[in-house]
Structure formats: structure tokens, C-alpha cells
Amino acid sequence: MPTSWQDTVIDDIHAGKRIGDQYIVDMIRDAVLSQRLPPGTRLPEATLGEIFGVSRSVVRKALTRLVADHVVVQQPNQVARVASPDIEETKEIFAARRLVEGEVAALLAGKLSPAQHKELQRIIAEEHDAHQQGDEARRVKCSLAVHRYLADQSPNRVLGNMLADLILRTSIVIALYKRAGMEACYLDHDHADLLNLLESGSPQQACDRMRQHLSDLEALLDLRPQEGRIDLAAILGGVA
């Protein structure tokens, strides 16, 4: 197990991974999705360059891509920050996700292949196991995996791509506004219930249940800004 960000990067180099802008994009996106890198976190080019051992031009290219994906915001001549949506934007993101993911659920209802059902069942079982063991990082990863799998399997690829973007943006607002002790996207039995409806329910039932799931999650948020001191090297090195 790596004990520092340097060890993480060295291990990846030995594994044949290229430490370029894509690597930085993936690391920062993963840290945001897992809610280890909170909204509003400053991302200085010099600091990121030291963490990843690359030039500032490579870091700048990665940040430009993250801005385009709504993960990072950056004003001219200012340090980039992890996106920090305000309350109104948070509501708009959830409203958009209800529309899109509800439709994706309706399209998939009654049409899951045995392989798709088995994979969703596996992810949900692992999520429940992580919850029982108190492994929050693994549980969050599994919760996200449920929804990302639905996005990947969407019969309508445009909706699937929209959903993938909204899942990331929703993760950002959950990290920003979740109440202390709140478990992101873990509402007891919700994912298992959704799977049952995707397997045997009507499209409208699956749509309604998905939208209720997202509304219940939104209702758990505490819509007040939160701040904290962030150790970029520890978070991006996987030792937070």
C-alpha cells in the first residue's frame, strides 16, 4: 500500500501508467466523486505540478479539461477551485438528474439482460457489505457505481452521457451540502428496490422510484456552505 503521494505516483509509473494530463484529470475526478476532495478546494498549478511530478503546462491542460467537465471552476488570473455550486444550481442539478435518470430507468425497465442484472446485484451487495462494515470509502464508490452502470447501459446514449455528467455534478453538491454523518446516496434498500423494479416493474414505476430516490437524497442535504482545510497531497495520493 502506498504511504504517500510520491509512492502512489511511483507505483503507477512502474505499472506503466503515463503521468500526463489524463492521469491528473482521472485522479482529481475520482477524488471529487468519492467526496475526498470537497467543493471549493484550491488547486494551485505549482502544488499539483509537485504532487504529480509534471510541468505546469501539463497541469494547466488537465485543469482546462476539468473546467469543461464542470468539475473545476477558474476565473482569469485566479487559482482553480473544485466547483462549488450555489443552492439554486444545486436544485437545478437535482431537477435535471431526476428527469434524465428517471427516463433512463424507464428505458431499462423490464429489459435488463441476465448479465446486467447480475452486475447490478453484485455492486449493490458489495455496497451493503461495505455499509455493514463501516467502510465509507468503499460504500460511496459502490453507490456511485450503481448509477454510473445505469448511465453506461442506457439504451439512449445521449441520455447516458448526460446522466454520467449529472452524477459527477451531483456528487459535488452532496460533498458540499451533506449533513454531518450523512451517508451519500445510501438510503436503506433503495438500490435493491430499484433493481427489483428494473427487473420486473413497469417503465413508469421504475421512473417514479428513481425520481423519489433522488428527491429523498436531496431532502437530506443541509444547504449551507461548508469549509475545511485540505491536504491536496494526501488526498490525491490516496492516503487521506
Protein model, in words:
This protein is an all-alpha fold and 240 residues long. It has 2 domains: 7-82, Winged helix-like DNA-binding domain superfamily/Winged helix DNA-binding domain (Arc Repressor Mutant, subunit A), CATH 1.10.10; 87-220, Four Helix Bundle (Hemerythrin (Met), subunit A) (Up-down Bundle). It is built from 11 helices and 3 strands. The protein has helices at residues 5-14, 21-33, 45-52, 56-68, 87-108, 114-133, 136-153, 157-177, 190-200, 203-219, 232-236, and strands at 42-43, 72-73, 80-82. It is globular and about 55 Å long. The protein starts with a helix and ends with a helix. The mean pLDDT is 85.
Spans of at least 5 consecutive residues with low confidence: none
Helix-strand makeup class = mainly alpha
The largest sheet, given as strand count, sense and whether it forms a barrel, is: 3 strands, antiparallel
H/E series, N to C?
HHEHHEEHHHHHHH
Count of domains: 2
CATH superfamily of the largest domain: GntR ligand-binding domain-like
The Cα radius of gyration reads 18 Å
Q: Share of helix among residues? A: 55-70%
Strand order of the largest sheet: 1-3-2
User: Overall mean pLDDT score?
Assistant: 85
Query: Approximately what portion of the residues adopt beta-strand conformation?
Result: under 5%
What's the architecture of the largest domain in CATH terms?
A: Up-down Bundle
Distance between the termini: 13 Å
How many distinct beta strands?
Answer: 3
The CATH class of the largest domain is Mainly Alpha
What name does CATH use for the topology of the largest domain?
Four Helix Bundle (Hemerythrin (Met), subunit A)
| Alpha plus pi helix count | 11
Identify the overall geometry.
globular
